[in-house]
Design a protein that fits this description.
This protein is 52% helix and 12% strand. By secondary structure, the chain is an alpha/beta fold.
Length: 275
């Protein structure tokens, strides 16, 4: 029988499924035996273990009783139902933390890897105001920004190429103090030996290669993958034929964007305008 390898870092559902399988394996139970104890089908157990179906509150409670794990699975199931992270993003973050090169393009807001905690908190506070997420989910997102940035402080340092649409630096986020600190962070980033920061000005018009944010990762083995998001989920592309096309477009974007020196000058000019 083929046994599917699980990827717990892929999503909260995948992490729950991995935990469920681990507990089952520790007791030597088959999926049929666990299903009998919980009161469902073996097919349902399989779907949850492989992350194809999220666990309900009732399922998690029954599983805790079957395993004698208190409310451990119930608490983890809440994370599956209420996580602030869209499907596919946790898997991307795991690859990002190992990448040797990161190329990103962002529209509208400063990207997470370059955000200050105050900028990130202001951004998420508006999502809370709109009732798009809860205050707890906002805290989770802000904490993840810090964790992602910390994961890149390693040796050898990854090369990071960041192209920001001009709207990223023109759009105010919070008060003047928040933006001043964010601009300072961008200038510090540009001064690092392993980074390149460019602004894609509005004047590029139709020559802008992308209309949505995109990231391309080069892994230590030189394999490539790209990541992009829709409103509800992220997509990690590993097929080299597709990723190379995106990488080519990214290089064209860099060629059309302002140089790092000109980009820094624009950021400094915008910064002076808020002080």
């Amino acid at each position: 029988m083929n046994r599917k390898e699980l990827e717990p870092e892929k999503s909260p559902s995948a992490a729950f499924g991995h935990r469920l399988r681990t507990l089952r394996d520790e007791r030597g139970w088959t999926q049929d035996e666990l299903a009998d104890r919980i009161g469902c089908s073996a097919t349902h157990i399989s779907a949850i273990e492989t992350g194809r179906r999220p666990p309900t509150r009732r399922f998690a409670a029954c599983a805790d009783r079957a395993f004698g794990t208190g409310d451990r699975l119930q608490r983890q199931s809440r994370a599956v139902r209420h996580t602030a992270l869209i499907e596919g993003f946790p898997e991307y973050v795991a690859h990002e933390a190992r990448a040797s090169e990161i190329r990103l393009y962002e529209v509208g807001v400063i990207p997470g890897l370059l955000q200050t905690p105050e900028y990130a908190a202001t951004l998420e506070a508006d999502a809370v105001r709109r009732e798009a997420i809860t205050p707890e989910q906002a805290e989770e997102r802000v904490e993840l920004v810090t964790q992602r940035q910390a994961a890149l402080v390693r040796s050898p340092s990854p090369l990071i190429f960041a192209v920001l649409d001009e709207g990223c630096i023109r759009r105010p986020m919070g008060d003047a103090a928040v933006m001043d600190a964010q601009f300072a962070r961008l200038l510090e980033f540009a001064d690092l030996p392993n980074t390149v920061l460019q602004v894609a000005p509005f004047s590029m018009g139709a020559r802008r290669s992308f209309t949505l944010p995109i990231t391309v990762l080069t892994m230590p083995d030189r394999s490539l993958m790209s990541y992009a998001e829709s409103a509800h989920r992220g997509h990690l592309e590993r097929e080299s034929t597709f990723v190379l096309t995106i990488l080519t477009a990214y290089h064209q974007l860099q060629a059309e964007a302002l140089s790092q020196a000109a980009s820094v000058a624009m950021i400094e000019q915008v910064r002076k305008g808020i002080s």
